[in-house]
Structure formats: C-alpha cells, structure tokens
Design brief:
The chain has 13 helices and twelve strands. The protein has 394 residues and is of the alpha/beta class.
C-alpha cells in the first residue's frame, strides 16, 4: 500500500471525516467504504442509499477517498482500487458481502450452524428470572449474528455484550471461527462479555473475554472507551434501558457514530415512550427498529419476543446514569407480582413471588409440589404484591 494505506485505518477514516467536515465522523466514511466493498461499482445515489447519507456528502467523501488512492471513477459510478480493496478488507474482512445473510427468517440459516448454536445454548445455566434472564432461541442467536454482520457490527470491531445470558458473544465467536475456516477473515478485533452472573462468565468458553461486572457499578477504568460496538439485552424496564445504555456510552467513550444493538421487550405505550425519550436524551439515534426480532425459550413471563433496535451515537452524547446506581432495576423490583400456579398432577395451588414460600416458579419446580411431588404447573393468575388475594391459593 502507499504511504496513505500504511496509516492506521481509524486515522484514515478520521482524516477523511475531518476534510469533509462530516458530522457523522469516521463512521460515515466507513459506511461509504462498506457500500463499495459490498456492492462493487456503484453510482453516487446507490452509495448514498446504502450508507444512509445525503448525496453531496457522499460525493465529498468519495472525492477524498479518491485523493488517497482508495476509490476510482468508473463508467457507471465509482469503485475501490486494488489499494482500496486491500484497505477495505482490513475493515470488513477479505470477502465482499454482496448478498448478506437473510435476517428475515431463521429458516434461511445454515442447518449445521444452527446445530452448533444449539450446542452452545445447551451450555447456558438455568435462567434466573430475578435477574430478568430469558434465553434466546438458537435460531434467534443466528438471526442476531447475521444482523450484526450485515450492519457492520462484527468484522474488525471491538465488541462488548452488556449482560449475556443468551451467549450472543459465544455465537459471534463460533461464526467467526466457521468463516475463518472458509477463508473469510471476519472476526472482531475484540470480543468481550460483561455479566453480573458468575455462572454465565464461567460457561461462556473460549473466544470470549468474559468478566463479572455489575452494571450498577461504574465501568472499570480499563474498559472505558475500549469498544466500537455494544450489544445488550437489558432488564425490560425503563430504568434497565437507561442504565445499560448509559454504561454503553462509557464503554465506547461517547464516540460519535458508535453502534449499539439493543434488544428490548414489547411494552405499553407509556413505557416505550419513556425508553425512546431516554434514547434521545442520551444521544442514541434509532437507525432501525425491528419488532418481534428475538424469540425466547419457553415464552417466559419476562419475554416471549422482543424487538431489535440498531442505534448509533450522536455527537455530544451524555449518559443519564453516572456513578453507582442504587435504584430499582429488574422487572420484579419495578412491578413485583405474586403469581398463582396449579400443580398439573394433584391440582393443588401455590403462590410464588415476593415474601412467598417460593420467589420464582423455578424454585417451586426444583422443590416440587409439597402435596404430590409433581414438577409441572400451570399459571392461573397473578396480582400485584401487597394487594389482597382475589384467587384461591394454598
């Protein structure tokens, strides 16, 4: 490569962004390069559509990239030079993704990869509903990996998962290894998972830098600003979203253009309004909002399906939560409920929830029905904790 090509990638992207006064920063330049890497020869309008940037800005970026010897004019638009292809391969892997994976349906996913994800899912410890854990299905893990890859969220990136009881990080690592075996260099530069649950950290396995961390605590100094992309499936409360997305800002160093992939449960309009208002207040901009993207095993009370939001950080972003957090966080804290379950074997009814004999249905299943030792139950009702019961429970 030329003297320009020898400059670290981020320096080149920053240089072009500065020369074009690009408000999107280096990520905007990266988006143009990604469009050309994926699409080959493209007209300005096609580049603008793929990069989600205005035409004049794309033309300016393309001009600066041409000065660096990375882009050349062609009969039907512009394309990467040989030097540009080499440079783009460092950013996005050595194989263009002209036809990215179809994330609209898990049925299109490689069956062998799905089996591998099933094995990964089998390593996950039992869900702890007091921590709002609900395990995404293997098909959902495949959809996530495809979605992240298609939206430039993996290759060459420094990726961190905040809370990873789903083992999304392990799925990314497995996909990277599979593609590497096929000759495609698509791995992230760094892959880290942070979780409060030691069981999760211990079970994640090779390929992931897994660490125990409570998001209520500030981000450890060595991790501040260390990442480009954040993936998170937080507690499905407004406070959970605010806390985890505040920590996400710290993990990317409030860098404009940083990406976040947020999974969040469908909720009532008032809750979703607060969540969206919090995103705007912090500086997280919604690029895409895909309802019912994630499916969870067993259709738990916490989550049957949830949305996927692709977010990008605006300049001058600020977290809502700074310092140690001591407020309510999880669904059980924000909306404590007492639920009634009926044993399928003997029809005895039992209460589960705060200040009850069992705090979760998992505890009731583990200890078995006191009347007949049965371990399967039907949920027959619920009431807010602290209110009088209107149902017959034992």
């Amino acid at each position: 490569m030329s003297e320009h090509g020898e400059t670290p990638a981020r320096d080149v992207l920053g240089q072009v962004a500065e020369r074009t006064n690009l408000r999107e920063g280096p990520e905007g330049v990266r988006a143009v390069l990604r469009a050309l890497h994926d699409g080959g020869t493209l007209g300005t309008r096609d580049i603008a559509e793929a990069a989600r940037l205005p035409l004049p800005i794309v033309a300016a970026i393309r001009g600066e990239l041409a000065k660096l010897g990375l882009v050349e004019k062609r009969d039907r638009g512009a394309g990467l030079t040989l030097q540009g292809e080499t440079f783009a391969a460092e950013l996005f892997g050595n194989t263009p993704t002209n036809q990215p994976p179809d994330t609209s349906s898990p049925d299109t996913t490689d069956a062998e990869f799905l089996r591998e994800l099933g094995d990964i899912a089998g390593r996950r410890p039992a869900a702890d509903p007091t921590l709002d854990q609900a395990k995404a299905t293997p098909a959902t893990l495949a959809r996530r990996v495809a979605y992240f890859a298609t939206n430039d969220g993996i290759t060459g990136r420094k990726v961190v998962c905040i809370g990873d009881d789903d083992f999304t990080s392990a799925a990314i690592a497995a996909w990277s290894v599979r593609e590497e075996a096929r000759g495609n260099a698509v791995a992230p530069k760094r892959l880290c998972a942070l979780d409060i649950d030691e069981r999760i950290v211990d079970a994640l396995g090779d390929g992931v830098d897994a660490r125990v961390w409570n998001a209520c605590d500030v981000v450890p100094e060595g991790l501040v600003g260390a990442f480009d992309v954040v993936i998170t499936d937080p507690p499905y409360t407004p406070a959970g979203a605010e806390l985890f997305l505040s920590r996400a800002i710290d993990l990317v160093g409030a860098r404009a253009g940083a990406h976040c992939f947020l999974s969040f449960g469908h909720s009532d309009p008032a809750t979703m309004r607060r969540v969206q208002a919090s995103l705007a207040e912090m500086g997280w901009v919604i690029v895409e909002w895909r309802p019912s993207f994630n499916a969870y095993e067993g259709g738990t009370v916490i989550a049957g399906t949830s949305l996927m939001a692709h977010l990008i950080l605006a300049p001058d972003a600020k977290p809502i939560v700074t310092g140690h957090y001591e407020g309510t966080l999880y669904t059980a804290d924000a909306r404590p409920m007492i639920r009634a379950y009926r044993c399928k074997s003997c029809r005895a009814e039992w209460s589960v929830g705060p200040n009850q004999r069992w705090t979760t249905i998992e505890e009731l299943k583990n200890t078995a029905c006191p009347s007949c030792s049965g371990k399967t139950f039907d949920r027959i009702g619920q009431r807010p904790a602290g209110t009088a019961s209107t149902e017959t429970v034992s």
